């Protein structure tokens, strides 16, 4: 699968540095708040797994499965909730953990939903931010690194469910997804 990668955008060591930095910031910002960290499946798993180990304060972890990508390389714009939270968010500080913010549509929808459900606050931490892909007005609160408008895979990000297990973020060769 490594031969399908055109270039590495974010290396394994850079990801570790990013999670350290974000973990320290989140520890500071959420100390004593018993925040609820909500991972958006499936892409968040590697990032969230490493990130939460760098947070040195009490947090609760839960997951949601939401999607606006239904195969292919472009967002459909149609956000579907496939798996919801097990606990109420009423009066909780919620931090959504995401692998990438691209169009912003999914995160805007989920953020608004959690606020509607009574969350005290809703913030977003993302490993990757791709502002050139935005279709809605949305800015993540915590950003690991900003990337250009390229189709990336690895470290949770996929193409048709493959490449999630790469230990880095790479640009997928166009011939792989234009066959």
UniProtKB/TrEMBL annotation:
GO MF entries: guanine phosphoribosyltransferase activity; hypoxanthine phosphoribosyltransferase activity; magnesium ion binding; nucleotide binding
Pathway: Purine metabolism; IMP biosynthesis via salvage pathway; IMP from hypoxanthine: step 1/1; Purine metabolism; GMP biosynthesis via salvage pathway; GMP from guanine: step 1/1
Catalyzed reactions: GMP + diphosphate = guanine + 5-phospho-alpha-D-ribose 1-diphosphate; IMP + diphosphate = hypoxanthine + 5-phospho-alpha-D-ribose 1-diphosphate
Main subcellular location: cytoplasm
InterPro entries, A to Z: HGPRT, Hxn_phspho_trans, PRTase-like, PRTase_dom
First-tier enzyme category under EC: transferase
Signal peptide: none
Needed cofactors: Mg(2+)
Keywords assigned by UniProt, alphabetized: Cytoplasm, Glycosyltransferase, Magnesium, Metal-binding, Nucleotide-binding, Purine salvage, Transferase
EC nos: 2.4.2.8
A cellular component term, taken from the record's GO annotations: cytosol
Subcellular location: Cytoplasm
Highest rank taxon of the organism: Bacteria
UniProt protein name: Hypoxanthine phosphoribosyltransferase
